[in-house]
Amino acid sequence: MTKETLAAAQAAPDAHSSSDTPIPVTVAYGDGIGPEITEAVVRVLEAAGAPLRYDVIDIGKSAYERGITSGIPDEAWDAIRENKVLLKGPITTPQGGGYKSLNVTLRKALSLFANVRQAKAYTPFVDSHHPEMNVVVIRENEEDLYAGIEHQQTREVSQILKLITRPGSERIIRYAFEYARAYGRQKVTCMTKDNIMKHTDGLFHTVFDEVAAEYPDIESDHQIIDIGAARVAAQPEQFDVIVTLNLYGDILSDITAQIAGSVGLAGSANIGSDVAMFEAVHGSAPDIAGRGIANPSGLLVAATQMLVHLGASDVAQTIKNAWLKTLEDGIHPADIYREGLSEREVGTEAFTDAIIDRLGDEPSTLQPVRYRSGGIHVEPSPTPEQEKVLRGIDVFIDWDGAGRDPDVIGQGLEEAAGTVDWQLKMITNRGVKVYPGGLPETFWTDHWRCRFLPGDTDAIPFDRVLDLLGALHGAGWDVIKTEHLYTFDGRRAYSLGQGE
Ligand code: NAD
Hints:
By secondary structure, the protein is an alpha/beta fold. The chain has helices at residues 3-11, 34-47, 61-65, 74-83, 102-109, 166-182, 200-212, 225-234, 246-260, 297-310, 313-328, 348-357, 406-418, 462-474, and strands at 23-28, 52-57, 85-88, 112-120, 134-140, 150-152, 158-160, 187-192, 219-224, 241-244, 267-272, 276-280, 331-333, 344-346, 388-398, 422-429, 432-435, 447-454, 479-488, 491-492. Helix 2 (34-47) runs parallel beside helix 12. Bound molecules: nicotinamide-adenine-dinucleotide (NAD).
């Protein structure tokens, strides 16, 4: 069924006369090979009796050509938000300035917090160096360094803010455990760098431990991201579900996709609290568009993820097993066809027919899938009340005088701060303590973090901070930013300087 005939059939009053009310999903056929593979996927969904109704939207190339720089017209936004689920064919992002990546726009605007990518080997039917590999990377998608809050602060120094939140961490971690249950997986591994980033990655790790305790049926462990990633690259078969922060997940999901040897067969899900989007990992493949040879597997796998998400796990399982059986029978589209491994090379249509013919069959060499019904639901808990007390302040100063001698800035700041009853506790340069008592070998840049504590009180009224800043400014120091030193329920909530 083409995009046009599907839309026409659904406009007819007697379309989908199933007794159950079908679940409305929004479908974008996409660009390049998008229409061919989406048509194939919808054909399998219909043949398998997926309880769905399809609302077709036009996004991507046609919208970009009409001058809509996001690639998504208003009516498409409405359909996506109304149905809450989008099955999306690949989109061609136009080259040149002014156009925004549609995926980034969707992800940000709809708050799609989880990116889910499975990397699985289908050996011996598809080549892979890691025949036992079957790992899912669940990547936090909104926070971390990707908030894009960057500033140049001095001639020599630029910074980015890494933001990790408790609800954001809880949502993704809970999703990972719910995912493991829904897909019959055994173990969730958390990866962070909390030996270094104790407050940001440390928060993610703490929340992981809290949530893991609620899922005693699922094994859990934590690994430091560097050694964890190395183990993933060397022995990916040791991993099941991995949940991690945005940047680590970005890198890790590319590593797993590469080493599995089956990127073309991979689906990807972007999950939000309200809306979820499912698509193939690959792009619109303009080089083979319209030739009837595209492999619809990536989008089909994504469609099975969509069905599990919606609670139609039985249909997802039927489709996935029929697809595995088709691979196992050696019926392969051109991109995975290999002399000796494959039986028959087929185009998109014949591959789709072969899957439909096998609905109800299961693979015998590859492991058949078993999905739990009920969908995946994540309810974040409210953040507990905590007593927040201001204890001190880090003032960042741009200073390039006196050969950058830390004793000069240290004594100068002490003098200015003393006039308003503040004490300079220490100065660090790139995190290393340089005053009082640093080493001459330390490299000094023009960016000085100066930690001040009040001389007379424990809990500081904010006016005292303004007094200090006024005194520093008045003495000619170039204040470029401040960070407050808080305790929460008495717990120190800031890092110490190296050597403090
Ligand atoms: P691509 O994934 O489209 O193609 C890379 C290679 O893989 C090509 O040789 C292509 O023929 C082949 N290939 C990809 N999918 C295939 C399939 N299903 N069956 C058979 N062969 C397949 O990557 P690209 O060429 O870098 O990008 C093309 C366009 O897709 C670009 O405009 C890019 O911006 C866009 N893109 C979109 C998405 C998305 O919508 N999520 C993702 C990646 C790229």
